[in-house]
Amino acid sequence: MPSRRTVLGTVACTLTAGCAGFGDDPSTAVTPSPAPVVLSPVDAAAVPESATVGIFSETTSAIRAAIRDPTEDVTDREWAHVVHEFDCFGFDGATYEIAERTSGSGGYVNEYSVTEVDDPGNESTVRVADLPDSDRRAAIDAIAAGEHRYDSDEGGFEPNSSVYVYNGSYYVFSWEVHADKPVMRTFAVEATAGDRCVTLEPLSLDDEQAEALDSALQSGEGSTITGTVARMLTESDTGYIIRHGDCYELATPTDGTES
After folding, report:
1. This prediction's pTM
2. What value does the mean pLDDT take over residues 57-67?
């Protein structure tokens, strides 16, 4: 007749899924393999406000540095262009945005050559002596130098199509070069009062795990992550991640197998 201890052990193992045999060494119990995770590229603008987005250690450090120094230009940071697509983001208990700053006037520069001609032709003429004082001085200097430069930001003498008369001679200002001044666009991290923001969550992957993930991502769309990296992503409870300037959505295959 089996002992009371044996009967209780049998019942306990029957009720417990994955229980090692009664009296077996617990160290020999099989640990179930983590379910694979599929990472699919997604447009960052399509990430919902309620989402939690995982970021890696280098991104985490860069964002914290930019928060400490609001003047820091993050335009060249790949992650900044992704996060800019979010209206705002929650990080370390506060909310921020990637603010777009512009510099430059959007003006222009014109350069002219100045040539003496014998006859004004059908062009109207303007006497240099009749120009306003500052324009008259600039026109005389241009005639002496044979060239003239006009900057819309600085103002000053901007020649028109007329022929200019100076000391009895005719001079034509020929437009040689036109250059638009670019408007520079830069990004910086700024605090904001937004209350419906994507949450950025630092991931706990080490360098080796990050390299394994990068190798899987090189395979293209629908990259499947397995092993400890898949477990870490699943346990992070993030629905998306940002990696190397791209945003990926996390999903588990419905059949529990790799695809």
Report:
1. 0.62
2. 95
